[in-house]
Design a protein that fits this description.
By secondary structure, this protein is an alpha+beta fold. 21% of the residues lie in helices and 32% in strands.
Length: 203
């Protein structure tokens, strides 16, 4: 891990891996230190913002220096189930590259429990870890210019749901009617880092 100043009242923790970033986020979230106003995980980073004069960043440095990031605290997390119709444009491609049937792709995807590692790309888009090994496949060689909202995709070690129309290069295996981002809601995004997510076949 390496700390870097990020303005006057924030610091960026560079992590060695996604696992370390998730562990650091879990450790700080479980401790809930006074004075930390924002906690933003990334693929290999963790941004922390403190209340000026609180000394919270120094406290977090001490906390993480002593933390066992190989066995982070689980803490309390929500579990969200998303109903999915598995009829994505790339479902057969994913099955072929995995060497399984399309039914097996659905079974594998719905049989795992995922964790929101971090959010980004678009408001409400969560990068979910826990994808079964056979489904860990590369992005499309040529991204689509328009991916419909609710599209469920996979790319590398992640799965996720496109919250709104956007370009995208993930392999699409299905779609959900669940709204992932509503600016009128509180909070606007359905998924937050640390949440557990299950996918359920809607037939």
């Amino acid at each position: 891990m390496r700390w870097r100043a990020y303005g006057e009242h924030a610091a960026l923790l560079d992590c060695a891996s996604l696992t370390e970033s998730m562990a650091a986020h879990a450790a700080v979230s479980a401790a809930r230190p006074d004075g930390i106003t924002e906690l933003v995980p990334g693929a290999r980073s963790l941004l922390l913002v403190e209340t000026p004069g609180s000394g919270a960043l120094a406290a977090v440095r001490e906390l993480l220096a002593d933390a066992d990031l190989d066995h982070p605290p689980e803490g309390e997390s929500r579990e969200i189930t998303l109903d999915v119709t598995y009829d994505g444009e790339d479902l057969e491609l994913v099955a072929r590259d995995a060497g399984v049937s399309t039914e097996d792709v659905v079974r594998l995807h719905t049989g795992a429990v995922y964790t929101v590692a971090f959010t980004g790309f678009a408001p409400g888009f969560g990068y979910l870890t826990g994808l079964p090994e056979p489904l860990r496949q590369p992005r499309l060689s040529a991204p689509r210019t328009r991916v419909p909202p609710g599209s469920v995709g996979i790319a590398g070690e992640f799965t996720g749901v496109y919250p709104r129309v956007s370009p995208g290069g993930w392999r699409l295996i299905g779609r959900t009617r669940t709204v992932l981002f509503d600016p009128r809601a509180d909070p606007p995004a359905l998924l937050a880092p640390g949440d557990r997510v299950r996918f359920r076949s809607a037939g």
